[in-house]
Design brief:
Elements: H1 3-21, H2 35-59, H3 61-67, H4 73-95, H5 102-152, H6 159-189, H7 193-217
Helix pairs in contact: 1-4, 1-5, 2-3, 2-4, 4-5, 5-6, 5-7
């Protein structure tokens, strides 16, 4: 996982959260139903449908075989991530920070949960995994040092010195093992993120469909 990718995506997620919190200082009652607001809504909804393609390719083997001949799954995942984020940002702009209808509020909340759960699974857990691997490598180095000291302790002339050097080494090893166990518990806790992400995403698309239906059913304001 490239650090630059993590920084860029983190910045976009941060921008999305700032835009969402904009309702604290700005609200436009008519923007969502305006021509501009409608164009943002259509563009955002179209972009948020793109991630479905990645999910289909990932889970349908025959489709995956065909698609990956031309594009890697990593590339498709990148499209999945950036299209979803861009769609979410356009959707937030479309709202004009007017959160009054129950459907609109639930849809926006679900969208934010989908984005954040995907972000946690893709980047935060990856960051924790990298940290765990680094600690495991450091622990292996300390174990090698400890084995050398244990071997030297068999020599009576250096036994006392080896024992004194082994004490801080053992303490460092214990601290690292404790940290690794803690990170593994965190990873186990978040291991369900994918199921949670898929479940909430499914609910989001149902709500999105209802929102589109409601917009068409009750008329588009700029055609009045």
């Amino acid at each position: 996982m490239r650090e630059s990718e993590r920084v860029v995506v983190s910045g976009i997620v941060g921008l999305m959260l700032v835009l969402w919190l904009g309702f604290l200082v700005h609200r436009s009652s008519g923007f969502a139903g305006s021509l501009t607001g409608g164009m943002l809504a259509v563009s955002g909804a179209a972009l948020m449908l793109v991630p479905l393609a990645y999910s289909a390719v990932k889970r349908v083997r025959a489709l995956r075989v065909v698609v990956t001949r031309r594009s890697s799954m990593r590339t498709l995942l990148g499209v999945h991530i950036y299209a979803g984020l861009a769609g979410a940002i356009l959707a937030l702009l479309h709202t004009g920070h007017k959160f009054e209808s129950t459907l609109g509020i639930v849809l926006t909340a679900t969208m934010l949960i989908v984005v954040l759960s995907g972000y946690v699974g893709r980047y935060l857990l990856g960051f924790i995994a990298e940290g765990t691997r680094a600690k495991q490598a450091q622990l292996a180095t300390l174990w090698a040092q400890y084995d050398r000291l244990a071997g030297a302790a068999t020599n009576e002339g250096v036994a006392s010195d080896a024992a004194s050097r082994a004490v801080p080494l053992v303490e460092s090893m214990a601290d690292l093992e404790h940290a690794i166990r803690g990170e593994e518990r965190i990873r186990s806790f978040f291991a369900l993120w994918l199921k949670w992400h898929v479940l909430v995403s499914s609910g989001f698309y149902v709500l999105l469909g209802l929102h589109v239906w409601a917009a068409l059913e009750f008329g588009l304001r700029w055609f009045r």
